[in-house]
Design brief:
7 helices; five-stranded parallel beta sheet; TIM Barrel; 302 residues; globular
Length: 302
């Protein structure tokens, strides 16, 4: 009789393990999402700019944290925990698309002003760019990949303290983000907004990986839901291709115009030494041409 009882208990234990394991597998598969690749380049569909060109580079960002991970409260010295993913069901109904979220921002402001933007960070190169910007007294806009924030908390705190503007650049940088189901797009934007919140800030811009906002309105409707203005660019020296320092600088100078938003990179799966080497010349020569270099307004454009 005792042997039978032990056998029955062992069988129940096996079933319980199988059930629990099955739940864990389901949870992991629900939040794995679509792996992204980091890139830049191409020109997004913006007013006054050419049609988009999508380019790719090898993947370099991790997938989102499991849905069961609880968000940690804001901290001042420890690394922030990965935020909890939004409801995978996503928004049931999106509101109609309205201005200004129906257009992609490629220019901003009036007068002889230009805006430096840096994509795909934070990375080990971001701090060097911050040093150059600080030495020149220039503010910029950083379009950041949410899953990388926890790896560079001190750099992120410095970037914020220095007065630069933040832009949501998705959680894992999927090149085809506009073609993903609405629930996955919602997850990419929402999780990154939660990561920013752990540093006490809210991004009011969203730049699609590769600059592709898609042929449908879903991505822009979700930008509207999060009150993140769709951000493109009007000057692209394709620094991520590493064409040479001289080429990067010359392309910026030959294509800039008042109100231009300039695309550069502090990440993207490869070294950014050419961008770092070219930035002082870009700044000094634009200023020599009479341009004021500014960050985009942190609360969004007027």
């Amino acid at each position: 009789m005792l042997t039978r009882g032990r056998t029955a208990l062992a069988a129940v234990g096996v079933v319980a393990v199988l059930v629990l394991t099955g739940q864990l597998i389901v949870q992991a598969s629900e939040v794995a999402g679509t792996p992204g690749t980091a890139s830049g380049g191409g020109t997004p569909a913006v007013s006054g700019a050419p049609d988009p060109v999508t380019v790719t580079r090898p993947p370099q960002v991790p997938t989102p944290a499991p849905a069961s991970a609880a968000p940690a409260p804001p901290v001042s010295s420890a690394e922030p925990a990965a935020p909890t993913l939004p409801d995978p069901a996503g928004p049931a109904v999106l509101p109609p698309l309205t201005a200004p979220y129906d257009t992609v921002l490629g220019f901003h402001g009036t007068g002889k002003v230009a805006y430096l933007t840096f994509d795909d960070g934070p990375t080990r190169y971001t701090g060097q760019l911050l040093d150059i910007l600080a030495a020149a007294g220039v503010k910029a806009t950083f379009c950041q990949i949410g899953s990388q924030l926890a790896g560079f908390p001190d750099v992120e705190r410095r970037l914020i303290a220095d007065g630069h503007t933040l832009c949501n650049h998705s959680w894992t940088h999927p090149e085809n983000i506009a073609a993903l189901p609405g629930a996955q797009i919602d997850q990419q934007i929402g999780t990154t907004q939660q990561a920013f919140a752990q540093f006490g800030v809210t991004a009011r811009y969203f730049r699609a990986p590769g600059g592709d906002f898609g042929k449908t309105t879903t991505l822009r409707q979700l930008c509207q839901r999060y009150q993140t203005r769709p951000l493109g660019w009007s000057v692209d020296p394709q620094d991520w291709k590493k064409p040479g320092v001289t080429k990067i600088v010359q392309t910026v100078l030959s294509t800039v115009s008042p109100g231009a938003i300039i695309l550069l990179h502090d990440g993207g799966g490869t070294d950014r030494n050419q961008t770092i080497a070219g930035l002082p010349g870009i700044i000094s020569r634009l200023q020599g041409l009479g341009y004021t270099l500014a960050a985009l307004p942190p609360d969004g454009p007027d």
